[in-house]
# Entry
Amino acid sequence: MKKTGKTKTLVILGMLTALLLLFSFTPIGTVPVGPLSVTLNPILIAIGAIALGPVGGLVVGSMFGILSFLQCLGIGVASGMGAILFDINPFLAFVQRFIPRALDGLLVGLIFRAVETPLGSSQSCFVAGFSAAFLNTLFFMSALVLCFGNTEYLQGLIKGRNIFVFVCAFVGFNAVVEMIVTTIVAGIVGTALYRSRILPLSADRTVREA
# Structure
C-alpha cells in the first residue's frame, strides 16, 4: 500500500514538473501584459497542494520559484522585469522570485487540508485554486516592495503613489485573470481527480489515517 502511494506521488510530481517546464520554457504558460505576465503556474501549485498536501505544494512551488528565477537570466520565457532586478541585485532577485512561490505552495497545502473536511473535497479544490493565485500575487508583490522598494527602478514605477494603490494598479488586471483561471481550472481538475478515485476522498483519508 505504501509502495503504491509513493509511486502515485512520484507520478504526480513528474507530471507537474513536466508541465512546469513546458509552461516556463514555452509561451503556453505565460501571457505578457506590460511589465508583468499572467502565468498559469499557480494552477500547478494548487494541484500539487491538493494531491500531495503541504509538502507537495512546497515542492511544486519551489520548482516554480527556481524556474521563475531562471527567467531573469533569459532562460525560458524571458522576464524583462526579472532581468532588471537581477542586474540590481542577483541575490535579492532570487529571494523575490523563489520564496513567494515556495511559501505559496506550502500554505495552499495547509489551507486545503484545513477546509477539506468542513467544505468537502470538491469545494476545497476551488478554495485551493483561488488561494494559490491570490497568495502568489500577494507574496510576489510584497517581496518586490521589500527587496527593491528603495531602488530607483521601483521608485520610478511607484511614482510617489501610496504602496497599496501602486500594487493594485500594477497587478490589477493580471491578478484578476490569474485568480479566475486558477480557481476554475484547479477546482475542476482537483474535483475530477477525487471523483475518479485517483485521490482519496476526505472521509476515506480519515478512515485510512485512523
User: Anything to note?
Assistant: The chain has one domain: 41-205. The mean pLDDT is 85. The beta strands are 30-33, 36-39.
